[in-house]
């Protein structure tokens, strides 16, 4: 029987997920990593004289093409319909990407690694966001795939790996460094590198320069353990010491190596390092060193992460606001940005779907308020900058992204595109809700899709400055060929947005022009995945900045729940 080897050994299988497997191959810092645990209840019984011997195989789907690739396999558990698999799947997690997953289950009948030689027990499809966004980051779904049969249920739990979240606060000083400057002493600074699997080094921190001293004390600095050693405590960390020169040709004083494990001993005789200059050492017989560097303090801090809040039950509420101004063009004409093409989505529909499909995984009721602005409404033709797309001002909620799309198309047929382009009313609409729940249990994301030139800039800035104190973020997608200079100003990445002398407390606006994501080859799947990635990438940090400023800690996650095992009476 294969799969009986100890968890953690790969037993001849490609890409086996191992307990505590950690991918140290990539020199780029991964997103946070999550560990997926899989259990099943009431699997199909395919064996005549005993119960099934199940294995779980995980597949992931590349963005842009629909091809499924095997990610890994669990061990085989003999003779059970209720397996709790020991071997975990460890995956990179990005909030801003949609990671499609497929779990296939087989009853293993021989030692062959070829899955077609074993009995198929069914499968389950989901996204990584769906697992993480479920209560307690625990998703329970029915297994499907065999017509007319109840295939049981699967429970997948996501746990964020701890080593991704630690930061360290360190301080160093040096003694008797080599004098490098003709007039005066050296101006020393330190450069830290983490080593990669191939022996190369990647820079991860530079200290400030301390002027005119051979005995500098540098300021304490904070760095994530991921950046310092990619979570591998015994990996080499190289530190180079330089004398700063104004022209950029900094003089090399010397270097030393250490590791996270050594540094974590804190201030002690083990953490006084000789600074060695290999060239000098090779030339001078009496060379001892070029000074010493001493670790003064080492403090580990565990950062709370976006996932801690999601796991503790914080809901992300998604609202969409669509620009119905006349500058979009007549929806019945192909040149219009609102053109209702029966064969493909228009720019508004594509942007809405790209962003909404990812965010909806974090909203448990999947009910989204959908608003329009800049149109004349039936029956009397009054202009509105805050109307419900579903025609119900008391209840503007639509079910799922598909419900929002449906309401959008219905509105196009009933309202008259008009103007002007006012953002403040829809921002204030969401802000009213956000102001009523400031305890960290809910966070609001407003997606505004617009063709551009804004008419109420002063009011919008005022609304954004006020909203920056609330649990909300604003995403603006600009469609069409207009100049979007005003939007860049609202984005506030270069200059923090202000209104009447008051600056925004935090940066809450992210703007992207849709035209930057049009794929000339027509591969909209890939280009929309890039759009979603870019507009959503800042949300977790904006979310955390609100929680930090308010001192809100994540709620404790609900206790892990293992579903009961139902013993099925089988007829003999």
Provide structural commentary:
One of its GO terms (biological process) is cellular response to calcium ion. InterPro entries: C2_dom, C2_domain_sf, C2B_Copine, Copine, Copine_C, VWF_A, vWFA_dom_sf. Pfam families: C2 (PF00168), Copine (PF07002). The chain starts with 31 loop residues before the first strand and ends in a 22-residue tail after the last helix. It is globular, with a radius of gyration of 29 Å. The chain has helices spanning 128-133, 225-229, 260-263, 278-283, 306-311, 347-359, 400-414, 424-436, 457-467, 485-491, 524-536, 539-550, and strands spanning 32-41, 54-61, 68-73, 89-93, 100-107, 119-127, 138-142, 153-160, 166-175, 188-195, 201-206, 221-224, 236-243, 251-259, 272-274, 292-302, 315-323, 367-373, 375-377, 382-384, 387-388, 397-399, 416-417, 442-450, 472-478, 498-499, 502-503, 509-513. Helix 6 (347-359) crosses helix 11 and helix 8 packs parallel to helix 9 (457-467). The chain folds into three domains: 32-161, Immunoglobulin-like (Sandwich), CATH 2.60.40.150; 166-302, C2 domain (Immunoglobulin-like, Sandwich); 312-550, Rossmann fold. It is an alpha+beta fold and 572 residues long. The strands form seven sheets. Strands 17, 18, 21, 22, 24, 25 and 28 form a seven-stranded mixed beta sheet that branches. A four-stranded antiparallel beta sheet has the order 4-1-8-7. The chain has twelve helices and 28 strands.
């Amino acid at each position: 029987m294969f799969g009986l080897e100890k968890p953690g050994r790969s037993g001849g299988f490609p890409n086996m997920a191992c307990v505590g497997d950690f991918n140290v191959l990539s020199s780029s810092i991964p997103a946070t990593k999550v560990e997926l645990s899989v259990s099943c209840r009431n699997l199909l019984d395919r064996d005549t004289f005993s119960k099934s011997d199940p294995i779980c195989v995980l597949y992931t789907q590349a963005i842009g093409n629909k091809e499924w690739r095997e990610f890994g396999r669990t061990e085989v558990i003999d003779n059970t319909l209720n397996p709790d698999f020991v071997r975990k799947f460890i995956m990179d997690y990005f909030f801003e990407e949609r990671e499609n997953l497929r779990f296939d289950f087989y009853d293993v009948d021989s030692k062959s690694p070829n899955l077609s030689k074993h009995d198929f027990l069914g499968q389950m499809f989901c996204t990584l966001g769906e697992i993480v966004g479920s209560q307690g980051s625990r998703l329970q779904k029915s297994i499907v795939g065999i017509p007319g049969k109840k295939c049981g249920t699967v429970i997948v739990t996501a746990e964020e790996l701890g080593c991704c979240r630690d930061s360290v606060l360190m301080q160093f000083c040096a003694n008797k460094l080599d004098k490098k400057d003709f007039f005066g002493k050296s101006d020393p600074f330190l450069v830290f590198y983490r080593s990669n699997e191939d022996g190369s080094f990647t820079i991860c921190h530079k200290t400030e320069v301390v002027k005119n001293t051979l005995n500098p004390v540098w300021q304490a600095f904070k760095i994530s353990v991921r950046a310092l050693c990619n979570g591998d405590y015994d990996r080499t960390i190289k530190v180079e010491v330089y004398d700063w020169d104004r022209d950029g040709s900094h003089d090399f004083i010397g270097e030393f190596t250490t590791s996270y494990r050594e540094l974590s001993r804190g201030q002690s005789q083990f953490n006084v390092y000789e600074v060695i200059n290999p060239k000098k050492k090779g030339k001078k017989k009496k060379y001892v060193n070029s000074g010493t560097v001493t670790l003064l303090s080492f403090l580990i801090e565990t950062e709370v992460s976006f996932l801690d809040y999601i796991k503790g039950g914080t809901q992300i509420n998604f609202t969409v606001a669509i620009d119905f101004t006349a500058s979009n063009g007549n929806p019945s004409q192909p040149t219009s940005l609102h053109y209702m093409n029966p064969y493909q989505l228009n720019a508004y529909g594509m942007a809405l779907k790209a962003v909404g499909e990812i965010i909806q995984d974090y909203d448990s009721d999947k009910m989204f308020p959908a608003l329009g602005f800049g149109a004349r409404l039936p029956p009397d033709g009054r202009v509105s900058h805050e109307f419900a797309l579903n025609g119900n001002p008391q209840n503007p909620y639509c079910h799922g992204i598909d419900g929002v799309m449906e309401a959008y198309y219905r509105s196009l047929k009933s309202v008259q595109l008009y103007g002007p382009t006012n953002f403040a009313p829809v921002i204030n609409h969401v802000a009213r809700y956000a102001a009523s729940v400031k305890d960290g249990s809910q966070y609001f994301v407003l997606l505004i899709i617009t063709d551009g030139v804004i008419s109420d800039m002063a009011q919008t800035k005022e609304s954004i400055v006020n909203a920056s104190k609330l649990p909300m973020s604003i995403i603006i997608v600009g469609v069409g060929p207009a100049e979007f200079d005003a939007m860049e100003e609202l984005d506030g990445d270069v200059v923090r947005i202000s209104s009447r002398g008051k600056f925004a407390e935090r940066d809450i606006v992210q703007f992207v022009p849709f035209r930057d994501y049009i794929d000339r080859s027509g591969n909209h799947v890939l280009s929309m995945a890039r759009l979603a990635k870019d507009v959503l990438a800042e949300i977790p940090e904006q979310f955390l900045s609100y929680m930090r400023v308010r001192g809100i800690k994540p709620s404790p996650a609900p206790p892990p729940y293992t579903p009961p095992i139902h013993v099925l009476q089988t007829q003999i």
